[in-house]
Structure formats: C-alpha cells, structure tokens
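Study both lines:
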Amino acid sequence: VSTTRRTRDQLSPDRVAELDAMGFIWDVRDAEWREFIDHLHEYRITNGNLNVPQRFTCADGCKLGAKVINTRQTKDHLSPGEIAELGAMGFIWDVRDAEWREFIDHLCEYRAANGHLNVPQKFTCADGCKLGAKVAGSRQRKDRLSPDPAAELDAMGFVWDVRDAEWREFIDHLCE
C-alpha cells in the first residue's frame, strides 16, 4: 500500500481509477484530517460548541477530546489552511481565555439586567452557567488573579467585598 501511494504517478489511469473506486486512501494525513474535521462538525451540531472535554470519545471510538488537545499543542505543525479551517469553525485554541470571555459576557448580561454586579452566590444563568459560584470563586482568588483580569473586573464595577459593598450602600442610604 505504501509503495502504491508513493508510485501513483507510475500507475496506469485504469489502475488509479480502480483504486479510487475502492475508496483507496492516497493521502493518509489528509484522510485523518478530514475525519477529525467531520467529528468536530458533528460535535458542534450536537453540543452547540467546540469545547470538547478532554476524555470525550465519539460513538465510532474516535478519541476526539485527545485529538483536540493534541491539535492545540501542535498548532505550529498545522498548515495555514488547516488553522484557518479550524478558526472558521470556531475552534477554541485557548480554553482558559474562552472560559474567561464567557464569564465576562455573563457578567455583562447580569449587569444589564440587574444594574449591578453583586451576583448572589446561588445565581444560575438561563444557559446553566453557575455565575454566582464563579463570582464567589473569583472573589476568593482575587490575590492570585493576574493584573489584566483583575483590572478588567475592576473597570466593570465588580464587587470584590460584598460586606463592604453592603456597608457602603447602607451608609449611602443613611446619608440620603
């Protein structure tokens, strides 16, 4: 099979046609790429995103989660066309950044609906995001957040200390 692939140009058109009719795979890497892309499309249709869990396995046994991780780690070995194809699909290259952006989007939606960012700890968004728990986690990790995310939350009016915010609100009402 390897020799046949390598010497395709030396085969008669009839032999190439016969192999093509059988579904002969001339380029294994391309066939594997197409299968990967097909699995990603199917996953997105089923789940609405491309945030494939690490251990996700397709019905046909394809370890799609592992392939996604490998693709992220070996991005430098992909062609510009492959990178563009994944980008057009909405492939997530940086999971942490995608999760952060989703968190910020949920916070913006919450503020637009409620006029503040003092999210109750048990609050869950309509899409199932446990925003209250994520906010509580961010408050607990404030000292470990890098400056850019902390500054982004500060700029939004994020409430880091709920008790202090409630005290300030109480004082403001007393002053009024």
The first helix runs from residue 2 to 6. The chain is about 60% helix and 0% strand. The radius of gyration is 25 Å.
